[in-house]
Amino acid sequence: MREPRRGRWPLLLVAAPILGLLVLPLLALALASSPTDLAAGMRDPLFGPALWLSARSTVLSLAIVVGTGTPLAWWLAVGPGGRTKVVELLVDLPVVMPPAVVGIALLQTFGRSGLFGAQFELLGLQIPFTTTAVVLAQVVVSAPFYVQAAAAAFRRVDQDLLIVGRTLGQSSRGAFLRIAVPLALPGLVGGAALAWARALGEFGATLLFAGNLPGTTQTMPLAIYMALESDVRVAVALSLVLAGVSVLLLFALRAAPSVWSLLHSATLGRSPRDAPKEGTA
Fold first, then answer.
1. Ramachandran region of residue 126, left (φ > 0), alpha (ψ -120 to 50) or beta?
2. How far does CA 122 lie from the centroid of its chain?
3. For residues 106-130, b (16+ Cβ closer than 10 Å) or e, as one string?
4. Contacts made by residues 254-261, CB under 8 angstroms, sequence distance 24+
5. Cα–Cα distance measured from residue 160 to residue 153, given in angstroms and rounded to the nearest whole number
6. Contact 147, 165 (CB under 8 A)
7. Which of 6, 29, 235, 262 minimizes the number of CB atoms within 10 Å of its CB?
8. Is 2 exposed, middle or buried, given 0-12, 13-18 or 19+ CB atoms closer than 10 A?
9. Which tops the pLDDT comparison, 160 or 213?
């Protein structure tokens, strides 16, 4: 047993540089600001509007992603293989494309000279450089994370349970909402959290498609970019808030499966310790 443990040390030494590169910048960020500097940065006029815009735009974009992405994820999980492969490829495209390319693509779609520019102009609508543009950019870049996570969760649902539900009188919609969704809920929540985090940190597509207008399109990442030109304390304060949210989100994702297991066991009226005993009886 000791030999394998000794054999791990060379691997750890080889991995130490990349581990340090991942951890040290976060440590430096945490040590970069005193409580006084942090409080001063949070009182800056950039901080409040950027935080509020990021909060409401990401909540709205997440609602759109979950509302429209859940049916798509279900179809990807149970649909015919040939068609779903093509759609999965299309869904994944925003992940592999640079955010700047996504921003230019959105401009070419919804801008005045874009694909639907003339139609929107007739209706008196302008999307680029508005809050709507911020939400659209967030939806495009974050949707793949939710859809793929939700599809993977739905694939783990036992299809026999859905068949049993149908035989007991459930419609297809009822079986989906009352059986598939509750069983896949941990994966759906995890995917939604990842999508929300991606929307919260979106920068490139938002900058090119929505601009950097304080109070209208200036989200927290854009405020950090702007604050670096005038007051580093504000940039650090915004960065610490985003980093804190990311850390809390990471812990929540790690704890979600255990919490869900406990809640599920409590719903069934038994403790997790009783399950193995019943299985071995």
1. beta
2. 35
3. bbebbbeebeebeebeeeeeebbbb
4. 256/186, 256/189, 256/190, 257/186, 260/185, 260/186
5. 16
6. no
7. 6
8. exposed
9. 213
Percent of the chain predicted with pLDDT > 70: 89
Dihedral Cα 122, 128, 133, 138, nearest 10 deg: 130
Token pair for 204? 């490139």
Angle at which helices 131-155 and 99-110 pack, to 10 degrees? 120
Task: In whole angstroms, give the CA distance from residue 137 to residue 107.
Answer: 10
Percent of the chain at pLDDT exceeding 90: 42
Lowest mean pLDDT segment, chosen from 37-41, 47-51, 88-92, 183-187: 37-41
From residue 31, give the alpha-carbon distance in Å to each of 35, 66, 72, 247. 10, 37, 43, 16
Domains in the chain: ranges and CATH: 46-266 (1.10.3720.10)
Give me the residue label for tokens 């997440």. 62
User: What is the rounded distance in angstroms from the CA atom of residue 44 to the CA atom of residue 233?
Assistant: 9
